[in-house]
Specification:
The structure is a single chain. By secondary structure, the chain is an all-alpha fold. It is about 75% helix and about 0% strand. The longest helix is centred in the middle third of the chain and has 21 residues.
Length: about 200
């Protein structure tokens, strides 16, 4: 209710930052209900355009990625171009803005998982290897990253990467990555350890 009031300007006029924040909240709420996916996409695309106009690259990327994810939830393959667009924006931003790196590596992982579930394992492998490079960069360049952050993210990456390498018939590579996963899997939550892609 409040989000819609802000967006329809029934509240006192809000600046573009407040409008974008409200769109983020609305997208987060709508994405929880499958019936609302089309509306989620509509508001995410509006958010991407407004963020672009405001020069807010991280918000623009987040909105495009969210729109792509919702499209993928409706039909496999339909949202990949928007997810790729978001990744390209974050890649560009991360050259100069270290704060974009954790968002980029997280989105690389999410995109790769979607691709793997569709059987597009070769492309997923590319993104996962890029994610591992990003995590190495976070280790080197962001000393304030929470302790264990990169290890947990590596475990999440190794599990899907091993699955994709196995699915592509690269058994030796899959075994090596699975062994790396086993060395750090205890650093992730118990719920994650039940993930079907881990095994």
């Amino acid at each position: 209710g409040y989000c819609m009031m802000v967006l329809s300007n029934k509240e006192p006029a809000c600046d573009s930052a407040q409008y974008l924040k409200t769109l983020h909240q609305l997208v987060a709420i709508l994405r929880m209900n499958r019936d609302d996916y089309p509306e989620t996409i509509r508001y995410a695309m509006e958010g991407a355009q407004r963020a672009h106009n405001a020069g807010d690259v991280k918000s623009e990327a987040n909105f495009y990625f969210e729109a792509g994810l919702m499209m993928e939830n409706i039909q496999y393959g339909s949202g990949i171009k928007y997810m790729d667009r978001a990744l390209d924006i974050l890649r560009e931003a991360s050259h100069d803005d270290l704060n974009s790196l954790p968002v980029l590596e997280s989105n690389l992982g999410n995109a790769a998982r979607r691709l793997a579930l569709q059987g597009n394992n070769a492309r997923a492998i590319e993104l996962l290897e890029e994610r591992l490079q990003g995590l190495d960069r976070i280790d080197r360049e962001i000393p304030t990253a929470p302790k264990g952050f990169c290890d947990e993210k590596r475990a999440l990456t190794y599990s899907v990467l091993a699955y994709c390498q196995w699915a592509e018939g690269h058994l030796a590579e899959a075994r090596k990555i699975a062994e790396a996963f086993e060395r750090i899997k205890d650093k992730v939550s118990p719920n994650f350890q039940k993930d079907m892609m881990n095994y």
